[in-house]
Amino acid sequence: MRPDTPAENVDHAAEAARLERTAGLYPEDAEALLLRAAAHLELSGDRPAATRLYDRLLSSDTPSAPLDNPPLVRALKASNLWEYDHEAEARAIIDGVRMAAPRDPAPWVIVAEALESHDELEAAHETFTEGARLLVADAARPPQPTHPLLYGRHRVRRMLGLEHDEWDALADTLHSMPVSLDELHDPKRVWSLGSDDPADLEAEISRLRAELGAYRQALSRPFPVAMLHWPAGELAELTEAYPSLSAEYPSYDDHLASIEAALRELASSGTPNLGVVPGTVPSYEAFAASEGASPADPTLLPQYATTLAARGLAVTWPPQPGTACWCGSQQPYGECHGA
User: What is the pLDDT of residue 137?
Assistant: First the structure.
């Protein structure tokens, strides 16, 4: 699907089938591609087929080939199940996601919003709060991926009629749209739609436009400016197979240092949405073949990185506090390349 294709013109079933075929061609990208395919199936109304894709992913999660984000897949499956009357199974999965306490905010947001959409406001509030307590804590400026946790918690607390607390105040400061969170999340604002006063209707339209803008911003996934990272084994295989690329990568340590230095330079210049994307020799060779070029051509490397990032494979840089470094050392970023 082209990025500029209007949503109403998308054949979601056909797009899901295309993504499944692409996943067969690029097994290393299967998780991201199949999650997108499942989303299209949900939009097409074929929720059982979407569940089968989620089950397919979860059944492939093995020690030898683990999923990148199993809690996210489970959260999406639970949300989907509840939408076609599998409430008991959905609740059980949601409980499991909460007990697993994932370090990624997305599963927390998905299960909390599933509870919220089915009027389980107390449980949704507890879930948003658990996620915020784990991932936001006392951070004065929490990472952008955690903002939906605070916004969702603010929304549910307004519906419950609870007083503002410190996290609600933090959500207000993070919110950048022209209409305040209190207005967007006011449970009584929909009453103005029944008014005969054109001014009331105009004000409500303005609020809805602001809310739509916030949703679009939250849902947008522009691929980052991504630096290509070759794990040690892959880099050794790459330079052995294509010696001319040794000039690009004098040593593994130099390779890692150059990635971190480049990212810091981009960040200091104000470039947003930075990331690191891991490469593999087989996928690089397949990409070169698809471009009709030689893998030994160094000008192909940035194109390969951009293609991988566009598939959603980039890891956000800098990593969240306490998470592992992008280089694969398993050390916290702050003790590794972030030191």
Answer: 80
Helix (H, G, I), strand (E, B) or coil at 227: strand
What is the bridge-based pairing of β-strands 274-278 and 315-316? Answer: antiparallel
Q: What is the mean pLDDT of residues 104-129?
A: 94
**E-strand stretches of the chain:** 225-229, 274-278, 315-316
Reduced to 3 states (helix: H, G, I; strand: E, B; else coil), residue 336 is coil
- Strand, helix or coil at 108? helix
Specify the pLDDT at position 55: 95
Pairing of strands 315-316, 225-229: unpaired
Percentage of residues in the chain with pLDDT exceeding 70? 87
Instruction: Reply yes or no: is the peptide bond before residue 3 cis, omega within 30 of 0.
Output: no
Residue type, 199: A
For helices 121-135 and 87-100, angle between their N-to-C axes, nearest 10 degrees: 20
The two tokens of residue 220 are: 């947008």
Sort 316 into a burial class: Cβ within 10 Å, 0-12 / 13-18 / 19+: middle
- Residue 33 neighbours by CB under 8 Å, 6+ apart: 19, 20, 22, 23, 26, 311
Instruction: Give ∠ CA 151-155-156 in degrees, rounded to 5.
Output: 120
Distances from the Cα of 85 to the Cα of 78, 96, 120, 258, angstroms:
11, 19, 15, 52
Which residues are CB-contacts of 280 (< 8 A; sequence separation ≥ 6)?
A: 28, 234
**8 A C-beta contact, residue 211 and residue 205:** no
Residues 6+ apart with CB under 8 A from 51: 77, 80, 81
Tokens of residue 179, six digits: 């209409």
Q: Compute the Cα dihedral for 135, 136, 137, 141 and give only its sign.
A: positive
Alpha carbons 190 and 76: distance in angstroms, whole number: 29
- Alpha carbons 272 and 36: distance in angstroms, whole number: 24
**With contact defined as beta carbons under 8 Å apart, do 40 and 19 qualify?**
yes
d(CA 110, CA 94): 9
